[in-house]
Amino acid sequence: MPVAGRFITFEGIDGAGKSTHIAALTERLAAQGELVNTREPGGTPLAETLRGLFLNSGMDALTELLLVFAGRRDHLRQVIEPALAAGKTVLCDRFTDASFAYQGFGRGMDLAQLATLEQWVQAGRQPDLTLWFDLPAAQAAQRRVGREVGAREADRFEQQDLDFFERVRAGYAARAAAAPERFARIDASVLVPEVWAQIVAVMEARGW
Ligand SMILES: Nc1ncnc2c1ncn2[C@@H]1O[C@H](COP(=O)(O)OP(=O)(O)OP(=O)(O)O)[C@@H](O)[C@H]1O
Ligand SMILES: Cc1cn([C@H]2C[C@H](O)[C@@H](COP(=O)(O)O)O2)c(=O)[nH]c1=O
């Protein structure tokens, strides 16, 4: 019988450096077994369709919250749970901590209702490790400007102000404090090689 795989998630405010380091970690872990790279919102055809609406259509905060959990349910059933059951490592760019941070702390949605949705949709499933890329909102905004020259228009979240992103950041800090065994805070404000060294140290501490 295959050993259950590892579920690793990547969190942080927009522009924190997640994508940059997911690519590097994918290379490092590829030697250890089969990997599945995925993301939220998204990860299945249905959830990717919902992602387009979520990022770009006007809606109230409750609709936004329900949409992202609907996509998550499909993603868990179609991709994450089967991969873990087959012993694969799942690298997921954002998961439910983002809902607590963005919809809970950013938009002010009720955290108890979020916890109910989390339990209902995930049936106990939690990441084995969450790498939280932490940096000040102003620094992340500068990085996004650098990245967005010539790229697509900013989505509904990227258009938010610094106060919104500082609330989201506080949301991640609260989630990390509530689950210290699962979360590893990465100081994402430093140069790429220094960020990477922190990630390697976290992986080595787990024997991964
Ligand atoms: N440590 C770093 N120092 C300076 N620039 C960085 C660092 N890490 C990433 N960057 C740059 O910052 C920009 C944002 O990085 P990246 O796209 O990896 O962030 P992200 O967290 O995936 O963003 P999003 O959540 O918006 O998708 C990119 O241009 C990237 O090259
Ligand atoms: C999972 C999830 C995501 N969000 C937000 C966070 C980002 O602004 C976008 C996704 O964009 P990315 O370029 O793929 O990082 O969606 C959210 O508000 N709530 C969530 O649960």
UniProtKB/TrEMBL annotation:
Locate the residues binding ATP: G12, I13, D14, G15, A16, G17, K18, S19
Cross-referenced InterPro entries, in alphabetical order?
A: P-loop_NTPase, Thymidylate_kin-like_dom, Thymidylate_kinase
Which Pfam family name is an example for this entry?
Thymidylate_kin
Please provide the record's keywords in A-Z order.
Answer: ATP-binding, DNA-binding, Kinase, Nucleotide biosynthesis, Nucleotide-binding, Transferase
Q: Give its E.C. classification number.
A: 2.7.4.9
UniProt domain Thymidylate kinase-like: residue ranges = 10-199
Which Gene3D superfamilies would you find in this protein's record?
P-loop containing nucleotide triphosphate hydrolases (3.40.50.300)
GO molecular function annotation: DNA binding; dTMP kinase activity
Please list the reactions this protein catalyses: dTMP + ATP = dTDP + ADP
Stated family: Belongs to the thymidylate kinase family.
> What task does this protein carry out?
Phosphorylation of dTMP to form dTDP in both de novo and salvage pathways of dTTP synthesis.
Query: What protein name is recorded for this chain?
Result: Thymidylate kinase
This protein's species is: Roseateles violae
What is the taxonomic lineage of the source species?
Bacteria, Pseudomonadati, Pseudomonadota, Betaproteobacteria, Burkholderiales
